[in-house]
Structure formats: C-alpha cells, structure tokens
Amino acid sequence: MKETSVLCLLFLISLLSCTTNQAHLTVSPSRSQFFKGDFVSLSCEEDDSSAGWTLRRNTSKRQRTQCGDGWGKPAGSSCNISYIYTSDSGVYWCESREGPISNMVNLTVTGGSVILQSPVLPVMEGDDVTLLCKTKTTPSNLPAAFYKDGSLIRKQPTGHMTIQHVSRSDEGLYKCDISGHGESPSSWITVTDKHTTTPPPTSTPPPTSTPPPGSTSITLPPSLSPPLLSVLLLIGSVYVVVLLVLLVLLVRRSVHRKPKG
Ligand SMILES: *[C@@H]1O[C@H](CO)[C@@H](O)[C@H](O)[C@H]1NC(C)=O
Ligand SMILES: *[C@@H]1O[C@H](CO)[C@@H](O)[C@H](O)[C@H]1NC(C)=O
Ligand SMILES: *[C@@H]1O[C@H](CO)[C@@H](O)[C@H](O)[C@H]1NC(C)=O
C-alpha cells in the first residue's frame, strides 16, 4: 500500500508539471546588481528533465550566446560565473530546444563601489520590498538616498528602505547613492498582478520582506498569459483530483481481491 501511495504522489507531481510546463531561472545570490569580481550562479530549473533548457544571454556586445560560449562555466543545471565583469551586464534567460523561454533577468555589474540590492525577479502586488544600498568596502550599512525614475524618494540613515504593499505605481527604475562613495547603477523593479487564485497575503509571507541569503525563484509559463494559466491550472487540478480518486478506488479493489496469506 505504501508503494502505491508513493506512486500516486509521483503521478500527481508529474501530471501537475505536465499541465504547467514551467521553467525557472534562478540567480544566486538573488539580486540584480553585482560588483565586478563577484561570484554569480544562474540555473535553469526544469520540471520536465527531458525539456533540455539552455541558459542564454544578450549583452551589448553579443546576442544569444549560451553558457560556456565565451562566458560562464556549465556546472550541471547551473552556470557559474566565478568572476563577473562589467561586460557581463545584460539580459539572461533559459530557452528550450522547442522554443519556449523562461522568465528573463537583467543583471548589472558595476566597476564602481555602490550597488542597489533590489529584487531580481518581479514582485507581487501587495508584497513588501526591501532595497539595500551597499558599498563594496564598508561592511556596515551607511546612510543612503534612494531614487525612483530620477527623483529622490527617501533618505535612510540605515541604508535600506522598505516599500510596503507594492502596487503598480511603484514599478520603475531605482538607484541609490551613498555620500562619499558614489551612486549605484539603476535597476528596474517590476510589479506583477496578484492572481485571483492566489491565497490571501496573510497565509503567505511576502518573500521579499525577508530576502533569503540564497536564491529565490519565480515560475513563468513560457507562452501563456496569467489568466489563461490560472484557468488551465484549475482544469488541471480538477483533472488530477478525479484521476487520483479513480486510482485510489482501483488500488483498493485490487488489494481487497488479493487472497489472504
Ligand atoms: C536578444 O537579441 C536578439 C538578437 O538581437 C533579439 O532578437 C532578442 O529579442 C534579444 N532577447 C532579449 C531577451 O533581449
Ligand atoms: C558552481 O557553483 C555552485 C554554488 O552555487 C557550487 O556548488 C558548484 O560546485 C560550482 N560548480 C563549478 C563547476 O564551479
Ligand atoms: C531589463 O531592463 C530593460 C531596460 O534596460 C527593461 O526595459 C526591461 O523591462 C528589464 N527586464 C526585466 C525582466 O527586468
């Protein structure tokens, strides 16, 4: 009976991944700005291991190059850049042989001494977002000024600011400045709509309010728009539940039929 439950679970998982066909691009450490010389690891995480996702990028110099082709070191499903250069700035994505692409990520590498640590992945409407302004050399946080679309929005003595309950109007180009050290590059913060199918914010803590030291991931359908995806997911879930019930009934019947001893 144990084996059959495990089988059921595997079946459920594989069905779910079939209905969603997701690709994830994760960045570790999870941020969009880096100092020259930093270590960065990017990975294409696939639900269906046969899909064969490849990490690609566009920089100002070359387009659509893949990991290992003059940059990065393929390491399993990851691509490690052990010493990132300013010329590694660009847009990164995962692409399958069949064509669908994952979420895209903008990475900016500075030769300067200040970076803005902002979410590298889109943030969900209603979440809290913490921005941190950091220098390369000073370990402690210094007072910083934060700008959105070129105008000063806040001066913070602790070097970080939190935008509570982000909305679409918070979307924009952010940068920060530390007196005596300089200005960070600018990075886009993208805000995505909250889906009607997602649980209320009280049951899921916003991932951005406490940025994990490791990597975060986002899942985007390769070609489907969010409302269509929700409908497909709903249909998929109903389908899975019906199949599971049928499977459990079948297993029960066969177990009962077995002669004892
Ligand atoms: C990358 O560059 C190619 C060729 O210039 C272009 O067609 C494509 O849209 C670019 N992709 C991204 C994600 O910017
Ligand atoms: C790539 O980086 C990961 C850490 O993110 C590390 O565990 C792995 O050993 C690295 N692989 C290579 C080939 O450098
Ligand atoms: C990447 O940056 C460009 C501007 O440089 C912006 O238009 C685009 O939306 C950004 N993409 C993501 C995924 O943040």
Automatic annotation (TrEMBL):
<protein>
    <recommendedName>
        <fullName>Ig-like domain-containing protein</fullName>
    </recommendedName>
</protein>
<feature type="region of interest" description="Disordered">
    <location>
        <begin position="184"/>
        <end position="219"/>
    </location>
</feature>
<keyword id="KW-1015">Disulfide bond</keyword>
<dbReference type="Pfam" id="PF13927">
    <property type="entry name" value="Ig_3"/>
</dbReference>
<feature type="compositionally biased region" description="Pro residues">
    <location>
        <begin position="198"/>
        <end position="214"/>
    </location>
</feature>
<dbReference type="InterPro" id="IPR007110">
    <property type="entry name" value="Ig-like_dom"/>
</dbReference>
<dbReference type="InterPro" id="IPR050488">
    <property type="entry name" value="Ig_Fc_receptor"/>
</dbReference>
<dbReference type="InterPro" id="IPR013783">
    <property type="entry name" value="Ig-like_fold"/>
</dbReference>
<feature type="signal peptide">
    <location>
        <begin position="1"/>
        <end position="23"/>
    </location>
</feature>
<dbReference type="GO" id="GO:0007166">
    <property type="term" value="P:cell surface receptor signaling pathway"/>
</dbReference>
<keyword id="KW-0472">Membrane</keyword>
<keyword id="KW-1133">Transmembrane helix</keyword>
<dbReference type="InterPro" id="IPR036179">
    <property type="entry name" value="Ig-like_dom_sf"/>
</dbReference>
<keyword id="KW-0812">Transmembrane</keyword>
<dbReference type="GO" id="GO:0006955">
    <property type="term" value="P:immune response"/>
</dbReference>
<dbReference type="InterPro" id="IPR003599">
    <property type="entry name" value="Ig_sub"/>
</dbReference>
<feature type="transmembrane region" description="Helical">
    <location>
        <begin position="228"/>
        <end position="251"/>
    </location>
</feature>
<dbReference type="GO" id="GO:0009897">
    <property type="term" value="C:external side of plasma membrane"/>
</dbReference>
<dbReference type="GO" id="GO:0004888">
    <property type="term" value="F:transmembrane signaling receptor activity"/>
</dbReference>
<keyword id="KW-0732">Signal</keyword>
<feature type="domain" description="Ig-like">
    <location>
        <begin position="100"/>
        <end position="192"/>
    </location>
</feature>
